[in-house]
Amino acid sequence: MIKIIDATLTMLEEYPLKKELVYEFARTLESLCIWGAVLTPRVYQLMQGDLPQGIIWYMELPSPSESVKYPGIHFFFSSFCDGTGKYIRNIQVNDVSELRGLECARPDNRLRLTGLDDLLIYESRDIYERGMKLLIQASPILYPENSCYCASAIAADYLQNHHNGTVMTTFTGIGNKAATEQVILAMRVVERYKPNNSFEKLADLRDIFEAMTNTQIPGHTPVIGRKIFYVESGLHVDGVLKKPSNYESFPPELVGASRKVILGKHSGGTSIRYKLKQYQMEDCYPVEHLLEMVKRLSIKKGGEVTDEEFLTMMSECDKYEKANQNS
């Protein structure tokens, strides 16, 4: 069974967190089939030890002697390791060559490997395959870093090749890590991970995260961006309306999103007809004339034409037609 542990809350030490939002964030993680979540002592104290059930709790704890202060925490990440199985030792790996030390290692989920930024950047595929083989053999909790923008790919590939593997991620990849939402969806699309589950709660998780951090996630962020299913190009619109799977790895409803046709300078006749059909006016207006108006306005304002502006154009077409009839 693959396991995904989310460590987002360890990256929010500098934010003025509120207990209600942290609790809701954790509950939403559990609804998305996240195996576990990691806390810091500060976040634990903020929640007053009131941890949601149904999720395995981990804590970053430099001093093992303090573990008795935190009932409800199942495992601790520390430099210390004993025979109880409650402590997980962390090892930083800065270069793929350091994986050679795992050649004689036995499967050990009481070990966390952090780093591996360069695992995917070598020209030789053999280097990557040997490194991944050593990781699978040792079976640590894998916590890849993202300095080379490969962390999500490494985490997903580890789980695809090791069906008993465990990875650690963070929402949006905050803290230079693999992105929780990207790894979940990669597994859903490639491995049919939790095929009967909907991941529409990712949209809720995005909203909670934005409220906790007082930030706004860019609209085209993979998986959770509000605009990732917005389409403007005429060819793209025509294709996605005919067969969405040719353009989309997953339907927008799966992640709580919706598709939207945007009008702009790259629009085509299909987009105009689609908009007219939305207003039940598909045979009432000259498509080419409206398309020309849309492109002119889009170029003039340097952006998309809103639905309100399109309705205004339709009214102008009505006036134009009436003027022609009277003349």
In a few lines, what is going on in this structure?
The protein is α/β, with parallel strands linked by helices and 327 residues long. The chain has helices at 19-31, 41-46, 125-138, 151-161, 180-191, 201-213, 234-242, 269-278, 287-301, 307-326, and strands at residues 3-6, 36-39, 56-60, 75-78, 87-93, 111-115, 141-144, 166-169, 230-231, 260-261. The chain has an eight-stranded parallel beta barrel with strand order 1-2-3-4-5-6-7-8.
Description:
The chain has 327 residues and is α/β, with parallel strands linked by helices. The chain folds into two domains: 3-213, Alpha-Beta Barrel (TIM Barrel), CATH 3.20.20.70; 230-326, no CATH class. Helices cover 38% and strands 13% of the residues. The protein has an eight-stranded parallel barrel with strand order 1-2-3-4-5-6-7-8. It has a two-stranded parallel sheet with strand order 9-10. Helix 7 (234-242) links the parallel strand 9 and strand 10. It starts with a strand and ends with a helix. GO terms for molecular function: transferase activity. Keywords: Transferase. Residues 223-295 form the 2-isopropylmalate synthase/homocitrate synthase post-catalytic domain.
Instruction: Domain count, please report it.
Output: 2
> Which class best fits the helix and strand makeup?
alpha/beta
What would you report as the Rg, rounded to the nearest angstrom? Answer: 25 Å
Q: N- to C-terminal separation?
A: 75 Å
CATH superfamily of the largest domain: Aldolase class I
Count of extended strands: 10
Q: Judging by the overall fold, what is the CATH architecture of the largest domain? A: Alpha-Beta Barrel
The percentage of residues in β strands lies in 5-15%
CATH level 3 topology of the largest domain: TIM Barrel
